Amino acid sequence: MARRLAIAAIAALALTGCSAAPQAEQPPSSPASEPIRVAMLLAGSSDDGGFMESGYRGLQRAELDLGVKISHIEGVKPEQKQLEKALRDLGETGVDMIIAHGGQNSAAAEVVSAEYPQIQFVVTQSGVKGSNLSSYEVLQEESAWLAGAAAGLLTESDVVGHMSGIRPVPGLKGRAAFVDGVKHTNPGAKVLTNFSGDQDDVALAKKIALAEIEAGADNIFTMLNAGRPGVAEAMKETGKARQFGNVRDFTQDDPEIFVGSAVADSGAAAFSAIEDFVQGDYKPEQSIQIGLENPDAVKLTLAPDVPENVKNEVEKLSKQIIEDKIEVKTEYNGPEFEVS
After folding, report:
1. How far is CA 70 from CA 37, 57, 64, 328, in A?
2. How far, in Å, CA of 160 to CA of 65, rounded?
3. Which domains are present in the chain?
4. Which interval of the chain is the signal sequence (predicted)?
5. Which tens digits make up the pLDDT trace of 123-164?
6. Which residues contact 89 (CB under 8 A, 6 or more apart)?
7. Is the model's pTM score more than 0.85?
């Protein structure tokens, strides 16, 4: 696997609304040949405030910075048959590259890429490869590990929480890394971890957050998309606990609720794949990784009120991960926190 050493930041961009059909946006005019056409599949909403939005911003940036012509399908349920259908719909449009955003697309992309050998396929947050298929991954487990380390230092109850929805491999790695980070700085702390089955259900997220808070969690790491506000509601109602976000810097939104954020800008993976393709550097059968050595894409941010000694320790630990002095564990075999 190749590890990407430099990548530009994904700029904040305005988003369009949802649609269940391919949506074409007009790129800047090209003075030379016909522009490269790139399509993206989102198994969610482009304005979910999290993972899917990050990927879509990467696509938009490619349109603005690289002059590609873009289209996308969103709102597809993360079920293989539906993902395959959406990928085939995009394949029939005759684009040059299709980006399936998120590891939940891995199996579908392996099937459909073989049906369209003339199109290059990329899955973000995955490790799948094929004759016309590559993966580009931001190592969210590295920032998740730092979030766990910070949670272990900050907890007063010695109980912290983790919440996610579905179980793609990157999400499982992120959970394992978070738990490992907690154990590194606070071996005696207890971690409550839950996968609810839904990334976007606000009411369900609130219910689980309330249960984890009731069980003593005072810091909760949320790997959610549109469901994330439910956790904030639970925290505001109880006046207890704070949240570590992921994907982007949520401390900029509400530093009273978000004590930190495990930034893993998945849009950087999408943009990097398109940039390589435009510049002639793209190769199939590769797995490209982007980690903490690229702080524009992967890092842990902390709220202003976090003590300096914690910030300094996190910075030190980040350098140790980059230097391979700390191994980030990506497998978890512990108990699950069940909510009836």
Report:
1. 6, 12, 10, 36
2. 41
3. 2-139+265-290 (3.40.50.2300), 140-264+296-322 (3.40.50.2300)
4. 1-20
5. 999 999 999 999 999 999 999 999 999 999 999 999 999 999
6. 22, 73
7. no
